[in-house]
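Researcher: First entry.
Model:
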Amino acid sequence: MTTNNLEELLASLPESNMTVRLLNMLDYLVPGEWNNVNSLHLAIREATGEGEEDVIGAIAGRAIELYMDPDNGYQRAVSLYSMVDSASTFAGFTSFAAKLGEDVEWLGFLQNVTPKLETTQSIDAGLKLACELGAFCMTNGLPGDSIGDFMGALANSAKEDKMRLAAWVACDCFLPLGPDFMQKIISTVENAAESDFMQSGLFQRVSEFLPGGGFGEKKDLVTNNLKSAEGYVQGFVAERGMTHDGVLAKIKELIDVNEDRLDYAAAIIDMSTNYFQHTGTQSVARRVITRAYGEI
């Protein structure tokens, strides 16, 4: 669990790197929703509209207290967002190795030691949405399987939450799995064995955070969460007229890859960005600040 206070966490977010470039590029999907806030006072101004320094200072003090209180779930939520991206770095590497195995005959042995790309990608995408559910429940003091409450929040998501959803759809789903990604993800997760899940570095890291006494219950949670979100996610895609070619064209603005090497893009993004941790920290900060503002 993170031990930095809220002010330090926000200050640690970079102003410009691969993650920030990716998120700025995806702004066309959720225009005006996301600003790269990396200071507590700026976050308070944006979340509350307050301009008085005395009031901002009082909000900041209370927000730091709330965040550091172990009885609240804010630190655990930030840790969960961080774990998602730490595991993604490994997933990106194994996906990249698997692609090398497909394309270079003498490296074919890699196929025997790395997960199948589409299976692992689908499981990880489902797990990431389950982690989003977990972080939502942690920051709102809800049981970890409160899918109904989470769906209500998802439908009304904005700001950092909406940007993170857009990045998940574009980079973890649309880019590697194609336009029918939700059906693929749900089908893969439903039919996956425990051994398939255990090949996921993400599952190994976050399994303890998922409610359920055993693998079957955890898998059911991931599956039910996906099925509940399917309609909203499909609407999100349709409303924005998202196409596979359109997403690829945007990604090519970020990653200089040849036309016949676009299948590497999702793995490269996995290895070089941490958009869950970056925007997740900002989301948690907004929730803490909103609560602090109501309490002073």
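Researcher: Second entry.
Model:
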Amino acid sequence: MFEPKTVDTAILVIFIGTAISAGATLVMPWAYGRMRRTKSAIQHEQPNPSRKQISTILIVAFLACTIPGLTQVALTKRRANAVADVASTTQAAALVSYALIYLTLLCCALAIVRKNSSLEVGQHSQIALWACLAPWALAIAHTMYETGMPPIHAAAYPAVVLALYAFSATIPDLRILAPMIGLVAAGSITLGLVTPAKGLMAGASGALTDSEKANFGSTLLAGFYNHPNVLGVILALGAPAVLLAQSSRARWTLIGIVGVAVLWSGSRTALAATLAAFAAVFIAKLLSSPLRGKWAAVALMAAAATMVTIPLMTTDAHALSSRGRIWIGSLAAWRENPVFGKGHAWYSEISKVRNDLIDIAFHGHNMLVNSLATGGLLTAVTVGILLLVASRSAACWARQGQFYPLAYMVAFFVTGATEVATKFRDIDPIFWVAVIPLVVIAINQPKSSERSHTTVPAASFPLEPSDQTDLPNVVS
């Protein structure tokens, strides 16, 4: 276990953790209170009795994903990293990371132990549960084969999945992600404005560098994370959550804040994913109920096809900021062991020797390529099954007027065309927007509805209750 070397470091860790925890304590319970006061659009539909426990798990997981990175940024001089030259994690950041991951494990364990045993889960949820856990199980099997016993914190992934499953987490339970993504976007923008040396991207020397991708000024926004692309992926996957916000005022406020952060990050993948997600929803809202499901299926298939075909059809090594070279080299390596792949840690291992990939290949820069290269066909198939289950659920929800799952899955596929949102093993900075929504969407397929085209689930663009007009915006 890591320990701070000095009292000053310990005090700094406590200060940072306390400050962010205090902010979350103020913002998240208020947001939860807003959720409780929402009137259901379906009068007979009751809110999830376990929403408080689910919200607690989501808040703790969010803190575990966010605070360690912010601590690292606060304590180190920002600079660009290569695979063979990664800035070492500070002891303070490591302490915060371990503490919050173990807290996540504890919260999930206590929540499951205390849960109401009368909760019922349908057959679809049981199938989806196995689909959610299969990629993790294969990643752990790879780790055990390569290095022995996996780290204990790897248990956080199944703990969160099982807790969400045990409490039958629903789409409305994800509404708390809206203020969370607003907090990340607003916090990153503030960091970039107040302390550019901490919030903006720097070169290998540590000095701020110009970028041809910059939309604002000449530098890119990295915010709480080590690279603008990481911030971009988080924003792209979190942006659909604004559809779950309480009021139109809150939604437009969040869209504006997240939009500015996406543009400042310079992530073209994030911009494309965000625009595609909201475009899919906009078109779906123009259609009648029977056509919504068909449109959702078409949109999801097109987005998934984009993710799969782009790397397979790329022959130019310099295409898409040299991602072509990563894809060509990764697929060539995969063919050496097509069933099991090269191992979970392959991208970090090849950095130690001369290789055909460029020195910034932390992963495969594509969900399919990364799955094949590290886990072979077994991992690619299990991930594909999970995405298929979630996509089917998203199409069903779209037919009934709930568009968040559609927007999220489109964003996931488009993001996965050039980035890797999750490796399905650990809690990392993207876990809270890459795994948690995917799991909840997968385990929730709407019940067969009556033949009515006016039925709208509670979470779909809820109207603002008349007695709440004096409340502040979700993000100020």
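Model: Note on the second entry: Residues 1-18, 25-32, 34-44, 449-476 have pLDDT under 50 and may be disordered.
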